[in-house]
Amino acid sequence: MEKRTYKNTNLKVSLLGLGCMRLPLVEGSTTDIDYDKAQEIVDYAYSNGVNYFDTAYPYHGGKSEKFVGHALKKYPRESFNLATKLPIWLIKEESDVERIFNEQLANCQTDYFDFYLCHALDASKFQTIKDFNIFEFLMKKKEEGQIRHLGFSFHDKPEVLAEIADEYPWDFAQIQLNYLDWELYNSKEQYEILAEREIPCIIMEPVRGGTLANPCEESNEIFKAARPDMSIASWAIRYAATFPNVLTVLSGMSNMEQVKDNVATMTNFEPLNEADKKVVEAALDAYKKNNTIPCTGCRYCMDCPIGVDIPEVFKVYNNYAVSKFKAVFKTAYGSLKDSSKSHNCISCGACVSQCPQGINIPEKMSEITELVKDMNN
User: Fold this and answer.
1) Residues 189, 209: Cα–Cα separation, whole Å
2) Which DSSP symbol is given to 357?
3) Hey, which residues does 202 pair with through a beta bridge?
4) Of 25-29, 95-99, 100-104, where does mean pLDDT reach its minimum?
5) Nearby residues of 167 by Cβ (< 8 Å), 6 or more positions away
6) CA atoms within 13 A on the CB side of 42
7) Which domains does the chain have, with CATH numbers?
8) In sequence order, which residues have a C-beta less than 8 Å from that of residue 258 and are 6 or more positions away?
9) What pLDDT digit, counting tens, does each position of 271-282 carry?
10) 354-367 as b/e, with b when 16 or more CB fall inside 10 Å?
11) What does the pLDDT look like over 297-334, one tens digit per residue?
């Protein structure tokens, strides 16, 4: 497994990190982790050199940290890097920070976190950090040895990132970066802001919630023609890992096929060369012709108070936007529970502020409802 050195230290971090937000689920559940299948993923990753495991307080409905603590307990603590995140939106008073932090230590069955993040920072959550002296508390925990490296994950505009990066002496930062979001989500500016400040990057959503593992038939053909020996997803993983200020690339792997493919990609890592970059550009141009919704399936928007399954509705729509198969769309949409379909949306907007991608969810739900009506007429 390719490893990169953290700043000027002896710490070696695997270029592939296991993200624990999309672990295999018990059949019929949206949050319950299938411990046996998920343990196989962790064991395979660990035995093949992955030493960075990323979880967070809200992942899998609050169950991810407990699984990670269980799954990694069998291994020597010093042999892996454990990362989790403080849910800033749940902090209503200063005492909440210590309460949640201690709960996380218990969940993960550990005495310390190697990488600890303030979760999903934007302008509003950054103000919460100031209002409740959160950074000061976490620095104290760092001094006490319960945090080894302190950073943040980010979802906002580049100028907000620059403000956050300059306010405190952060050890690292986690940003969304992939070849689609390099321009669409201002990932280029975000990466450059951190690189200029010599703040190492952890990369999330390199395959954009699975979208870039199968962007569209035209894109797939371009990738396969260039390198028939590589999976489509590996192009996205390689793209993110090519940048020199990247410490590790997180992938939320849901099955053994994905973990084996990603491990193979990072074990024999090949940075993109100039010819590869032109292939990516051509595949991206082909993908952009499709009118897809930039949803990563993170489920931060859930639960909808009305019961609409926002990520599933968007997934069905995006499959149609790429394939243009009306019959397939009607079948897939019809298989959703009626209570979870787009026509139930009342445009309350509760989901909008929670969406890291800034999607106008009520507007898109209305568009999908109209599409369904048109197809049924």
Assistant:
1) 21
2) T
3) 174, 248
4) 25-29
5) 126
6) 28
7) 3-288 (3.20.20.100), 310-376 (no CATH)
8) 233, 251
9) 999 999 999 999
10) ebbbebebbebbee
11) 888 898 899 899 998 898 888 877 766 667 778 888 88
Confidence band for 358, pLDDT divided at 50, 70 and 90? confident
DSSP 342: G
Amino acid at 124: S
Count of other CB atoms within 10 angstroms of residue 229? 6
Under the banding of pLDDT at 50, 70 and 90, the label for residue 145 is very high
Strand 3-5 and strand 12-14: the pairing is: antiparallel
Helix (H) or strand (E) holding 201: strand 201-204
DSSP secondary-structure letter at 25?
B
Q: End-to-end CA distance of the chain: give it in Å, rounded.
A: 55
pTM score = 0.84
Sequence-separated (6 or more) residues with CB below 8 Å from residue 105: 111, 112, 113, 146
Which pLDDT value is given to residue 324?
A: 66
DSSP-assigned letter for residue 338? G
Name the DSSP letter for residue 304.
P
Q: 147: which strand partners? A: 113
Distances 300 to 63, 69, 356 between C-alpha atoms, Å: 15, 22, 8
Q: For tokens 């620095």, what's the residue?
A: 139
How many Å apart are CA 186 and CA 184, to the nearest integer?
Answer: 6
Residue positions counted in the chain: 377
Residue 372 neighbours by CB under 8 Å, 6+ apart: 333, 341, 342, 343
Looking at residue 146, the DSSP 8-state letter turns out to be S
> Over the chain, what is the mean pLDDT?
93
| Helix (H), strand (E) at residue 318 | helix 310-323
Residue indicated by tokens 């951190």: 194
Q: The tokens of 163 are what?
A: 């403000």
Closest CA to 180 of 153, 213, 156: 213
